[in-house]
Amino acid sequence: MVTDHRKQPRRRGEALSAAIFQATLDELSEVGYAGLTMEGVAERARASKASLYRRWPSRIELVMDAVYRVLPSPGSAPDTGNLRDDLVALLTTTSNALSGPAGEAMRGLLGEALRGESPLGSMRRNTQGRGRRLMEEVVQRAIERGEVDPSDVTPRRIDAGHALLRHHFLFEGLPFPDGLVVQIVDEVLVPLLKPSSR
Hints:
The chain is mainly α and 198 residues long. The chain has helices spanning 13-35, 38-45, 49-55, 59-70, 83-98, 101-114, 120-127, 130-144, 155-171, 180-193.
């Protein structure tokens, strides 16, 4: 049965956007990216399709906005007081995100982009640098505490942890094995950022 949205209380602005974003995440969890439609999101959010299309001309834009709204943003990097625990906390947050609706969206968006069905450039613009900026915050605090020498920090070393998680996610699938984050931190990131010999 189709809901008559004209009989529902009108929501505007942030309240409407929040309902639409939550509906998008719920649809991703329930039907996956392949099954997600603008109509399904509108119905779940008790909103009109027109209200979605006014804000997001396509499914890819809606999904990216919904997903990036729930991911950690620069300025929210963990601060446990030491580099290793900060890295574990940050990569755990990332692995949890990839295990939920954000991961389902990423897989679907990447599949579309590789088939030429959606612009890869649009994905890059929306994802560019978020993980790196969070990692830079963690490493900068470690530099300020004297744990890391700035000369040991390079863009590739900053990117290594998230790159390994994404590689596992894309090529080995879910769930992430127990201990994977700790292994990446202890075997790769800490040795890269705090080399024992000079």
